[in-house]
Amino acid sequence: MTTAPEPQDAAVPETAAPELVRVRHLSRIRIGLVWLAALVMVLAIGFVAGPARQLTWVSIAMMMLVLITGLLQLLDGRPAGYIHRFALSLAGAAIILAIGTVIFMLRGAQSWVLV
């Protein structure tokens, strides 16, 4: 009689669990770093750029955040979940930039689209 082969998950050693926890923790830190960078950029734009240029700088900030996210996720070195981590990082950054944009518009930022 032949027996069914064991699933591959059964071959994972018990010591792998702390490694997975560490990897997930580092992924969350990298995602949080992108969100923190977005917040810092919005604050810098609000304090440094004039109302005529704030919305231009928001788009430049998003472009920089895409590059930062790509770099951080490539430094991770794990292909599994790359798209998920990349999308989550940029979704949070986009929400932060959108909130900043609304505040800038309420404070009188000018956009050539609305003129």
From TrEMBL:
Provide the alphabetized UniProt keywords.
Membrane, Transmembrane, Transmembrane helix
User: Where do the TM regions start and end?
Assistant: 31-49, 55-74, 86-106
Question: What is the protein named?
Answer: Uncharacterized protein
Species of provenance: Gulosibacter bifidus
- What broad taxonomic lineage does this protein's source fall under? Bacteria, Bacillati, Actinomycetota, Actinomycetes, Micrococcales
